[in-house]
Amino acid sequence: MYELLSEPIRRYVREKKWDSLRPIQSASIQKVMQSEDNLILASRTASGKTEAAFLPILSRVNFNDPGVQVLYISPLIALINDQFIRVQELCEHLDVPVTKWHGEASQTLKNKLVSDPRGVVLITPESIEAMLVNSEYKAKGLFSNLKFIVIDEIHAFLGTDRGKQLQSLIFRLRQFNTGNVRVIGLSATIGSFEQAKEMVGPVDSTRILRDTTGKEIETEFKYFEQGNLTELPLALLKDLYLSVCNSKVLIFPNARGTAEEVAVKLHKISQKVGGHPYYFSHHSSVHKELREYIEAFAKNNVRYPFAIACTSTLELGIDIGSVDRVVQINATHSIAGLIQRIGRSGRRNDETSKLSLYATDPWNLLQGIACITLFKREGFVEPIEYTEKPYDIFLHQALAQVRQVSECTQEELIHKLSINSSFKFIPPDEMKEIVTHLQQTDLLELIGGKLIIGVEGEKIVNTKDFYSVFQTEPLFKVQVQDKPIGEIPYSYLTKVDQNILLAARIWKIIDIDIRAKRITVIPAMDGKKPVFSGFGGEVHPKIRQEMLRLLITDAEMPPMSEDAAEAIRQLKLEFEHYKIEDFEVDRPLRVQVKDMYWYSFHGTRVNGSLSFLFDVAGITHERWDLESKFKFDAGDFELIIQKAMKAYDVLEPYLVSAVEKDPALLSFSKFGAYLPLKYQVHLVRDKRFDFAGAMDFLSTAHTSSIHTHTNS
DNA sequence: GACCTGCTGCGGACTG
């Protein structure tokens, strides 16, 4: 395939002294050079996807044509800065200018590009939105002669609001391109590609090039019981220290606070025993410059071992080189996330990836094992959840498009939105109803037959927060009387009388000053556990089913420490007498004197929906998601199931009143609150719950009961 | 029991 490349690009490949092109690169070169298809290039991290896209694109495009020829879109500024260096190096051979265009990029260089639009531009979705909304003429001047759009890390957009927005932005860019714009998405290996196809363009002209060769994954599981401790067990930290002190490792503890704890404590142990000082933490609350320093250290350092305790900030494709081992503390919520993390390890191409999972309770251990066994046995990765009717993104894009053209008729607006594939499942009469509602609420205004942004709309559109569709929480200062004790994100859970955990103590909120962003607290008198939860990660039903299978059968388990094996043995003992044959439907029920416990072994969303149905039916219960366990008063369980199923018939009014009473139910959506109520309810139902799944489960579930006389 | 992501255009002060 090398022969298909242009001479300057061949020279680049020769200078790089690569032994050969990677499979994904050869496949991509052929399809980019010899077809007009849109492409999805899917292969694991660090397999040369950027080059796979850019080598043939740069060979094929004539950069003497007017306007920007190639638009590269990335979900992260950090990734743009990272890729800029690589793309620039490639483009030097062709004398093609490369320009970064994001909020932190040089205004001078952006202005220079506007006066002489050429070459390659690296941009974020929000910067595209801002340009379209504020100065359509600029976007037209730059981007009306595009040949290629490259979307990096496209899996990070799939199934998200930001992805829907990006899909719409690509559509809007295509609108003023008369020629064909080809789109190439770069992706990690993911469960399904249908949505990726939707995003890049017409489904039938999109090809998927997939390099499935993965690295071997070597796992070990360890167990250190945490019990009621709020901090990690000392034995875990000591074991972890010994296992990582001479290697380059990433440690993922699932939470920012724990990441800090791990970094600080490992460093302390290292100081005591005269080990290396390279222990870092990397997450969103760590200052940006420090994060960049850590990334550069990891990438450029060859001599020293290091450990970075981090969150998902190090899951995406920023180049930090490769590490020897990845440590996961407790289970991830998704297999997709776990695989991304594991992919960071294995120094050379042919070397195995190494994962150590440290669990602090038996259910987390079981979930971690279930994720790995499912992936290894079936290659299972969660399919992407698809929202057919993203009414809130529709509303955002309606406002954006009116602002983009300053004024247009209602018919023109509806037409633009109707032909936009992002909203193809929203029928025109629903579009009209929403646009009419926007006029009634002064977000839009009809003047002389033309729609313009209304008085209330100006407040939303005329702020820089308008360009992104994801919700962010501002940080609030927390103080006792006048003494500040820290900062927490303000969310719907932050209410007067609510208990919060901060600076290792429990507090009760007595006042919230929204304008001053200040929360006043007093020490909490009751020892009640602070409620921080709400909607955490969602675990897929298949993982829970696999957990049940591992408990009930003598299925082979991956290698684990003696303590881990013992924890699993104990858990299996609890379930050994239930008669579970069909893992889809047979579920354990433990009946005690006063209470009974039912294990659904189902996904987070169905469990939440079951809980809502029990509430509607007036059934008192408690719920634990990790164990997928429900507690009821002892009684007739069949009657509970029947009542819950009947509750489904009267569900709608309960949902409507829940959304009306508690706007927090919609807190996942930045613009949802501006919709008519019925569409708000639809969004809540669609994104938060799975009532169909819950009903399906209730109608088929069988219980296997065991009666005990204790009441522990 | 979570984690993460991004941001215009203008006027005015200041620097070299």
Task: Give the helix/strand layout.
Elements: H1 7-16, H2 23-34, E1 38-42, H3 49-60, E2 70-73, H4 77-92, E3 98-101, H5 107-115, E4 120-123, H6 125-134, H7 136-143, E5 148-151, H8 161-175, E6 182-187, H9 194-200, E7 206-210, E8 217-223, H10 234-244, E9 248-252, H11 256-273, E10 279-282, H12 288-300, E11 306-310, E12 325-329, H13 335-342, E13 353-359, H14 362-378, H15 391-405, H16 410-418, H17 428-440, E14 444-447, E15 450-453, H18 455-461, E16 475-480, E17 483-489, E18 499-502, E19 505-513, E20 518-523, H19 541-552, H20 562-575, E21 586-591, E22 595-599, H21 604-616, E23 621-624, E24 629-633, H22 637-647, H23 651-661, H24 677-688, H25 691-700, E25 702-707
Parallel strand pairs: 1-6, 1-7, 2-4, 2-5, 3-4, 5-6, 8-13, 9-11, 9-12, 10-11, 12-13, 16-20, 21-25
Antiparallel strand pairs: 14-15, 16-17, 18-19, 19-20, 21-22, 22-24, 23-24
Helix pairs in contact: 2-3, 3-4, 6-7, 6-15, 10-11, 14-19, 14-20, 16-17, 21-22, 21-25, 23-24
The protein binds one DNA strand of 16 nucleotides through helix 6.
